[in-house]
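INFO batch 0412 | record 1 of 1 | parsing
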Amino acid sequence: MPDFSLADFVTYVRTHLTGDEKGESADFLDHLFRALGHDGIKEAGATRETRLAKKGGAKGKNFADLMWPERVLIEMKSRGRKLERHYDQLFDPVEKIALADLPARAEALAFLLQRAIDLPQPSSRGSA
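INFO prediction complete | emitting tokens
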């Protein structure tokens, strides 16, 4: 496993990232997973840009910035954004996630600013 601590992660983000959602989310998330003791996102079993059907059967796809089955759904926003305005982006995809993969938490991240939401868990988890 990489030798990269949470303190190293915070220093890296503050020193090297400006907080741009589109341009830096992948780098932020990869370094976060390394700081959590994983070799990377994929090695931990998570995926970036997970395709999910749009709400109400609309054409096209939505994308979850990061989906770590049974653990967390992450939606990234640029630094300085009001995360409360984007909660719908956390809840809309939940109904499209397979019951066995439904994470316990959803996180809205604006780089080092974060809001966590515990998702309601069905009693039949894992039996689908």
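INFO post-check: Residues 108 and 114 are 6 Å apart (CA to CA).
INFO record closed
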